[in-house]
Amino acid sequence: MRGKLPHTRRPVFNTMAMKDEIVRSLQERIISGDLEPGEKLSEQRLAREFGVSRQPVREALKALEIASLVTIERRRGTFVRGFTRTDVTNLYEVREGIEGMAARLCAIRGSKDVIVELEDMMQLMKHFVEVQDVEQYLASDEALHRLIFVGANNDRLVEHYNLLILHIQRQALGRIVGRRAGRINRSYLEVSAIVQAIRDGDGDRAESAMRIHVQSGRKELTGSLYGDTD
User: Fold this and answer.
1) Which residues form the HTH gntR-type domain (predicted)?
2) For the whole prediction, is pTM greater than 0.90?
């Protein structure tokens, strides 16, 4: 019909895709510590930030609640999930077991290339201790732990580790611990013992050293969060 514009279908807004993008972005920021435990997440502010309606933001926050990264409180809002003393204890007990096993397997199975990379990483960490660069030390420490899992050569163990790190918010908690006076110095000595045992091919000693390292981190964390002195 003359004068009538042809019918055009309006593009369908992909709410699911936007939700997934928001989930990924917020998850990265929570795990890295950019969003700290207890911080409030405003649906309205996030909708403006991502240029979307509040619906995909609301769906993303529900997904993050299921992943135990946020808590949604009626009439109060959504908050980055904090940690109770029991949470910390439970998570670090699991971490001790997983990372202890990884250190043992790395000592038994670790290739020469992995050993060389561990030693190179230790040199970097030593430098960061000397200049007291906490952020760079923590990043190097995380990389070293992942190298140990590479040396362990067990994909299932890596899967469990990745899931644990998601829940433990490793970088965020690492920053809390790292701010304690002398912590990176103590950590470096603990990690040195782990790498030495791996270099020696001593699985028992590597696992024991890793368990001590994780236990030490837990004690320092609870000291920061709850004022524990033991």
Assistant:
1) 16-83
2) no
